[in-house]
Amino acid sequence: MTLSRTSRAARKIVAVVWAAGMLGVASCSAGDNAISLEETRKLGGSTKAEQARQNAEKHLVAIAHTYDKETPLTLALVTVKDYCASGSGGALPSGDDTYKIRCTVDVTGYYGADRDRIGDVMDGVLSAGDRQTSATTPGEGIDFGHDDYRNKLVAYYRGHGPNPSGPDTTEPMQLSDGSQTLEWDMVRTKQHQTLIEEPPACGKPDPPVTRCSHKPESDTVAGIRGKYGMVFKMSMTPVNYYQVYKDGKTYTNW
Hints:
By secondary structure, the chain is of the alpha+beta class. It contains six helices and eight strands.
């Protein structure tokens, strides 16, 4: 019996998938190119990893609270994502072939602010950054200070100048500096307004492989906006706080 063109194509697809699966099994059997999920748990749950995890999270959360203490922003929600991924060929491939596992923490702060005073709010954030830059003993950092563009941004939001990004451009809603990015709701745009989105929901935690928290759990971005008028989001570059190399050496960021 002659196979139809569709049947022959289907068989080819099955063959390719099977070959890929066998290649994956072979690579997972290649000794030091793969570690098990159990070993990922063991390494990520070690005393050294846990201490580094606590120190890294404490440092990043402290920065989020600095914005609350030093600027007109009111911290309303902090999200933490923490995960340990195995190196290339492991149970959770990352594409890197130099380490067994790498653990990373990511912290984001969500703040409320008065939309009718956004110019003063922006100026307050930048002034706090200026103070930290000039301080003899800098604290947990605010990376944003005044410069020519940001002075014009403050003037724009106070209604004293044009959009600093240029005519016919969208309303600015982001600053990036160092390891931090500050974003905020559009407030001058009446149509097609872009707002800070809700943070991704946490999946089922599986520490130390994955961990996620929203504090307080009951707060939402929409709720913050309803209470304060607008939302600012401050995100930081995720920190690789613990790493175990394939030669057995370990690295901790704290």
